[in-house]
Amino acid sequence: MRESEFEVLQECVRKPAHWEMLTLLHELQYGDDNTTEIAVLQCSCMATRGDGDTLRRIGVLPLVIGLLKDGTGNQKLWAAEVLVTLASHSDDNCVAITRAGAISPLVALLRSGTDMHKQEVAYALGNLAANNEGNRGKIAREGAIPPMVAFVKDGTDVQTQWAVYALRFLSLSNEENRVLIAQEGAAPSLNLAHNVSNREIITQNGAIAPLIELLRSGTAMLKQRAAFALGNLACDSDSVSDFDDAIVPLVELVRARSDTQKEHAAYTLGNLASNNDDRRDEIGRRGAIPPSHRTTYFSHGGRDR
């Protein structure tokens, strides 16, 4: 189903009456497993429709968070989905979710849940961290960073995507979190590499090779993010031979259809060439930039003007 079709159907769903909301609360609290699962699924649908503030005001959050702790596998999955949506729509919801005690069970599910649980939880934690400095500290203190890093290194594509999303926010304006992320070896996939000490830690931890592998075999989104991360790391790359293997896949990305992939790959190639004549010649031989544009292109770090 196309997104436009989904939005049309979404608008066809009427706003629930007050008595229906009370019934929903009762089913969440007292229903059997099947009834409770349907109720939390309804909460997810209502949150997606835009009724998140109503759900928060009638007291759904403690019940949904309780399902994260003690629900069935499906109940936990839908509960995490409810929090993903609520946290993405409202800063007030993020504050309420945290106050209701969601972070600890979310992190527990991040460690021990199914693959689907883990990717939803990573997404939820990313939303909770996006615009709230206090939440970033709480999420880190609960121990979310090590399992997030594990997803970046060896998770499914979706787990990697949402773990990188969450870790980017966890690193913002919080030096303690940045240090934790770097120590865990996650920083290669983040925009943390503008910091010189982080670049050194990232390179010393062997991050370049797996990032180059993502350029070759990752999804379109992972290729895009890997190219940008390598571009940040390449600022100090003149004497690091590991980057040489990145040239061919980066040139291929420059020729890709995606404008963002092209921009990130060009940015990285520009940085790789800026301090290394041999690399500049190799990039030129690979045909990434027409000969008449190379001097201008490389002098601007991959931006042809």
Structure description:
- The chain has 305 residues and is mainly alpha-helical.
- The chain has a domain at 197-305: Leucine-rich Repeat Variant.
- It has 20 helices and no strands.
- α3 (33-49) runs parallel beside α6 (73-89), α16 (220-233) packs parallel to α18 (259-274) and α17 (247-254) crosses α18 (259-274).
- It is elongated and about 70 Å long.
- Mean pLDDT is 79; it is low at 192-198 and 290-301.
- Residues 276-285 have a biased composition (Basic and acidic residues).
- Residues 272-305 are annotated as: Disordered.
- InterPro entries: ARM-like, ARM-type_fold, Armadillo.
- ARM repeats lie at residues 206-239.
Helix count equals 20
Number of strands: 0
**First CA to last CA: what distance?**
41 Å
- The arrangement of helices and strands along the chain is HHHHHHHHHHHHHHHHHHHH
- Which radius of gyration do the C-alpha atoms yield? 23 Å
The CATH level-2 architecture of the domain at 197-305 is identified as Alpha Horseshoe
Give the C-level CATH assignment of the domain at 197-305.
Answer: Mainly Alpha
Task: Describe the main β-sheet briefly.
Answer: none
Low-confidence spans: 192-198, 290-301
- From the spread of the alpha carbons, the general shape counts as elongated
User: Which bin fits the share of residues in helices?
Assistant: over 70%
The average pLDDT score comes to 79
CATH topology of the domain at 197-305: Leucine-rich Repeat Variant
Backbone structural class: mainly alpha
Strand content: under 5%
CATH H-tier superfamily of the domain at 197-305: Leucine-rich Repeat Variant
Region (Disordered): 272-305
ARM repeats: 206-239
Biased composition (Basic and acidic residues): 276-285
Pfam families: Arm (PF00514)
